[in-house]
Amino acid sequence: MADDLLTSELLRTDLGVVPVGYSEPLDDGRLLCTLCPRACKLRDGQRGLCYVRGRIGDTMVLTTYGRSSGFCVDPIEKKPLNHFLPGSAILSFGTAGCNLACAFCQNWSISKSRQMDTLGARAEPEAIAQAALQAGCGSVAFTYNDPVIFMEYACDVAKACRRAGLRTVAVTAGYISDHARAAFFDHFDAANVDLKAFTEAFYAKTCGGHLQPVLDTLEYLGRSKTTWTEVTTLLIPGLNDGDDELAQLARWLHEHMGPDVPLHFSAFHPDYKLLDRPPTPPHTLSRARAIAKDQGLRHVYTGNVHDPAGGSTLCHGCGLLLVERDWYELGVYRVQDSRCPRCAATCAGVWTATAGDWGRKRRAIRIG
Q: 329 — phi, psi (to 5°)?
């Protein structure tokens, strides 16, 4: 836990500090945070490991409500989502902090921030929804850091988006407690879950967490009828890219989420505290894709490398090219009523009659 103190004065200032739930008193006087599996036990003035949830008096608070590290309009494929509103623009934003401690974090300046002045943008939920509409977006993504830790703000934004006719996307590590999981994900139309690896040792040593809660989240989403889900694994040479581990990962996804869940293997580049590993070679991603397809997954993609074949969607029934992708540019688009036009096999996802044309553009915007 961080050792700086929260004070009751914060509740009387305009700093985005709001009382929240998901806490229980303990017999020793501490307050247990029940939002995520970390189960931080806090005395008055202490923050949890995420740094944005803490205790003031007998109240658990969120310190980043209505405050963001910035807003940007992205291609939806950047989340990555390949089977959800393809080609469309999505408004992306995040806050600060994180409830994992990944040594390889590629957004560490935001997720590991201990300075609240990282949050330079103020925006109420309705303002975010209206900004997304004005920018021509079909959806809003909660990303850059994990929306689980700013759950109350994220859910209020999601409600405002739904009132405005927008879809919502959670980009998350899925590290959330059992009793908060449904209340969180039921607000989102889609999710991309970052499955860091498929061993407890990797989660414990490299991420400061545990594997099982993430698998529990994926199982929950595999049963969901309302939240479209895709999965991403960043492959780090020598740490989580072994053939056996990749086969076990893909086999588990097939058994617990079904053959249609899209799986993205992304390339690592040295960052944050993990600077002693080389970038992921493209052939590692191709090998991982082949292994996962051998385990029965129908839609396996490569990311962070130029690989049009690994980024495109084929019909699992007849092999017809359904969606052609080159980086974030879409070419051929043949999905008709969620089916292949040649063999009528269903292609799972949330498809539109025609693909969007946002392309690879990335545009920062200001709100307020």
A: -90, 130
